Amino acid sequence: MAHGVELTADISTYEVMDTWPATAKVFLRHRMSCIGCAMARFCTVAEASRNYDLECPAFLSELEHAARASQAPRERSP
Prior knowledge:
The chain has 78 residues and is mainly alpha-helical.
């Protein structure tokens, strides 16, 4: 995937947020309790999307978009 983002449905929600912190806003937008949840290390993106009645491919796409956007090159000041 572009910009080094390799998100799959079998990655834990903790790993997603730890690797790409900007994805936390996606979890919050869907009112998910994954942030700070003790099970986040064990719960995959697929399981979380199922638990919150979200379509996994669409949710995964949102996470990927947030992860890629956070890795966009920043402009450097002179």
